[in-house]
Specification:
210 residues, mainly alpha
Length: 210
């Protein structure tokens, strides 16, 4: 589904602001440093704004492009189904919730910083999957689409494992808790999505059995 200002204004504005702020931060080290999440400070009641501002800057071009492409393909679907202000609320709350585990985990590590919209983007993807669990999702280098529900399960399993064992400087906690936040907030804001989700999956299973 296309992401346009006319159809999905909140998702469109978030995309534009994120790109602009990230580009400015690439060439302004002061903004780059100040906008990052610093768990050591946040856990002591300082630089709390980093819970939000860190989601609007990225490490480099590839980080920005990957996150915004993922966002682009799902944000329009979610805002159309969930509603405008509801989408904005989900995005901002998920941005904060996805960072809280990192704050707790690294609260004594003064040198740890985190940035990027990955947590909120994961929330958007999982919220969209709730509305269409069978939609094919394509992953780079894999030419076959994976049904959303299968992708979601694999994603959660991988993020949970990686958050405990990976040493790749990727904030897997943000990915995991962002995805869970997206599921929780979508269900809270649109109660009917859960029975519709179950009905869709049940129908698909029955069709495969027969």
């Amino acid at each position: 589904m296309d992401l346009t200002f006319a159809a999905t204004p909140i998702a469109f504005v978030i995309l534009i602001i994120t790109c602009i702020v990230s580009l400015v931060a690439f060439y302004n080290e002061n903004i780059y440093v100040q906008f990052m999440l610093h768990p050591y400070s946040v856990s002591r009641g300082k630089r709390l704004y980093g819970l939000i501002t860190s989601g609007f800057i990225h490490k480099d071009w590839m980080h920005l492009i990957f996150n915004m492409l993922s966002y682009y393909f799902f944000a329009g679907i979610l805002e159309t189904n969930l509603g405008h202000w509801q989408f904005g609320l989900l995005y901002m709350v998920s941005l904060i919730l996805s960072d809280l585990p990192s704050v707790n985990k690294h609260k004594e590590d003064y040198g740890y910083h985190s940035l990027g919209a990955s947590g909120a983007v994961s929330a958007v993807i999982f919220g969209a999957i709730l509305f269409d669990p069978l939609q094919p999702i394509y992953i780079m280098l894999i030419p076959i689409g994976i049904p959303g529900i299968i992708f979601a399960i694999l994603y959660l399993v991988y993020c949970n494992y990686a958050s405990k064992h990976a040493r790749d400087n990727v904030n897997h906690d943000a990915h995991l808790f962002g995805a869970l936040s997206g599921l929780m907030i979508t269900i809270i804001l649109h109660h009917q999505v859960l029975p519709e989700f179950v009905h869709t999956i049940t129908e698909k299973v029955q069709s495969l059995l027969h």
